[in-house]
Each structure stands twice: as C-alpha cells, then as structure tokens.
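User: Some background: our group keeps a shared notebook of sequences we're curious about, and every so often someone picks one and asks for a predicted structure to add to the entry. Today it's my turn. The entry only has the sequence so far, pasted here. Could you supply the structure so I can complete it?
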Amino acid sequence: MTEPQSETQPPEINPWESTLAGESYVETPPNPLMPSATLLWISISLAVVVKGYVILKTIASDPHFSVRLLSQGIPELAMGAMMGLGIALLIHALVRQRFAQLMPGHWRLIIFGFVMLIEICSALSSASMSSEWGYAGPPPLAKLIQEVVTIVFYGIVLWATRETWPWKIYAGLMIVSSSLMIWRLRVIASTDQVGISDTLRSIIILIFLLDLTILVVVVVAVIVDWRRKIPRDVNHHLGVYLVIILPFMAGFISRFVELLFIERF
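Assistant: Of course. Here's the predicted structure to add to the notebook entry:
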C-alpha cells in the first residue's frame, strides 16, 4: 500500500539567495548573468582610472583643489565604478548571448554606464580641441547621443525581454522620456529668444511628470517582484536603487563639503 503524498509543496528556492541558519545546505548554481572576476575588475578599474583622470584635470587649477578633490572626486569615482559594472554586464551578456535574460537593474546600470562614458568622451574631446578642461555637464551633441542610445537600448530590451509587465512599461516610458529630451534639445537649438518659450515650458513640465510616473512604476515593479518572489541578483538591486540614490548623494556630498570648507570661510 502506497503512502499518501504530502500536500505540502517544497518552498521555492531563490538560486542566488544564501542559505538561512537551520536549513539544509543547498548547492546553488553560479549566476549566469554575473561577469567573470577578471572582466569585472578590468572594467571597473579602467572606468575609475579614466574618470579619475578627467576629474583631476578638471580641478587641477582650482584654488580649492583639496576640497574639490574630496567633494567631487570621491563621488565621481564611485559613479565611475558603477559605470564599469554596467559595461561589464553588457559585455558579458553579449558574449554569452544572454541579453534577453538581463534583469531590469542590469538595464539601468548599462544605461548609466553609457551615459557616463559619453560624458567622459565629450570631456576628453573638448579638452583636446580647446586645451581647456570643463566637466559641468555634457554639451547638446553629447546629450543627444545619450538620449538616442537610451532609445535604441530600451527598444531592443522591449523586443527581447520576457520581464513582467511593470518593467516593460518602465522600458517604454524610458523611450518616451528620451524622446521628450530630444524634442527639448531641438526646441532649445531652434529658439533665438531670451528666456523660456511656452513650448519649452510645456516640455519641461511633461518631463517632470513623466519622471514621477517612472518612479512610481519602478516602485510598483519592485513590489510585484517581491510579491511573486522573483529571484534577483545583487547587481539588479544595485541598478534599481543606487542609480537613483548615488547621483543625489554625490550632489549632496559635494554641496555639503564645499559649504563647510569653502563658503563658510
């Protein structure tokens, strides 16, 4: 006589989650989306070195060099490390033919890496032509390239990914956001009037509302992932959270340090 089968189903195992105390050890397979240590460290090291070089050349003649190095150098180097991580993720996914398996946090890290890379190339190009270093922000052409790259990347993501619907909506909204930014650049380039035109003002309001919508969609997508217990790796979480937090932290640190050491005296 056969024994009745238990109705209790075995718990779902997150393939990248550490084993809790008291549980039996389960050997987990390696994360197929994690770049090799060699690729990871080479990408991050090169990104940090190039980023550091640009920052040093930018602030070399600043009378408050030491303060600028602290207020701008450290946050920018942290963003350089994230840039290297994003580039390593993309190279690994393309070489291993796993682009369709990339997680949403990986998308964000990759785009962050591209944006930073274009800014660095723009700074290096401008300095080679004018012998003057400036890193206040990318010029219109570099910004246009950033938005075009974002549209193309997320277009490929929408075509290839099998992610949940909130993340697909996020990818679509990123395409719309970049399209609005391109429209904004065209309006700025075509206007000869001083001040903000009505069209430009409307575009700015649309971009602001769209950014809020994207933030809400990201929150909903994270909640859906949590409720469905979708396994995510550490790079996904870095991309989801740090891409939002790190630039704000960099701006806050820069402003706080300069206020403390420069403007105070």
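Suggested note for the entry: The radius of gyration is 22 Å. The chain is about 70% helix and 0% strand.
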